[in-house]
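[User] Could I get a sequence and structure tokens?

[Assistant]
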Amino acid sequence: MLGLPLACLLLVLASYLSNLSLPERTAEPERLSVQEKAQLAEFYHLKAGLGSQVWPGFGERAGPAILYNENYAFLVGAENPPDGWVKVPETSPRGGAWKPLAGETFDGRPICYQRVADPSREIGAFTVRIGEEYAPALGTLEYMRISLAGSMRSSLPPLAAKVFPYRIFPIGTFTAAWHVAGLQHEAFHAYQAAQAPQHLIDSELAEREYGKAYSAKAGAMQEAWKAEVELLQQGLRAANAEEALEIARRFLRLRAERRQAAGLSAGLVRYEGEREWLEGLAKYVELAMWRAASESTAYQPLEVAPGLESVNGYRGFQQGWDEQVRLLGRQYAEEGDSRFYFTGWAQAALLDWLSPGWKDAALQDGVYLEDLLAKAVR
């Protein structure tokens, strides 16, 4: 009778002791570690190898990229970059001069860096413009794990925060493969910015203009949103085009009914479409790149040095996909715009069934995913 309680107590104690040594800052914030260079190398390798298979033109050019931690931003892939960066959709530059990191290179070229007071805010996980080029930006693998654990810790009651097994979740589940996929997500934002700059600016400005007003309406739409996301979950599991077609028609009908019942203004309707276009497409590419890497017989991830974490052949894709499908079902009750990452992704997946050439029109100004879906089901 005492066996199970004792085992649970020992697990709690082990988690508590493990948490005492949980890092709160990166080990060497002033440089890119060998692991982070491996993450960047695989990001570029995957983008070049499978990017244009996932989205026409996406893999054609390497371009610059930024990784950051709590104190520093590191820029690779740029020769003699101009000072600072522009945080889209703003126009004023931030930051200072990019300096070569002494003795450090990436792919035979200098790594540039600069100290930033709060990189998560001043740069952020998105795309920034450096001169005339757009660069994806994301935290380093180490920094993102620390940040995720810290965010979870701060949200828990004090006692639970001391014993929660952070090394299992979120640290253990945010793998090297997830990080590379996340870089693909942000790289697609850079691609959106290069191909459809005004569309991207409009999508970002929509959050500023309508985000709070939409949040005020969201609670009253929860039940209707629940029906929509459950239908989209079915769409992600569709077995054939006929099933996907019926689901798409029902989804568009439910969406129109929800908007009418909630009395959404034209601006709030446009807000939904803008955020799904921006974040839903990037999430689609993130997961499609991971899927392609896991299923391809020709693509081989780069080997990493002994002791480094690898992407493990991207074999965690199916588990990651299933978890994202599960999370989609919870989005009706989530705050902020996270639901649009998921609903945009799910619509894009339906379009794969219903309109194979849909990507040719997806980056045109004023085009939203639901427009393409409505055209596909006529």
In short: The chain has two domains: 34-175+186-194, 197-376. The mean pLDDT is 95. The first helix runs from residue 3 to 20. The chain is about 55% helix and 10% strand.
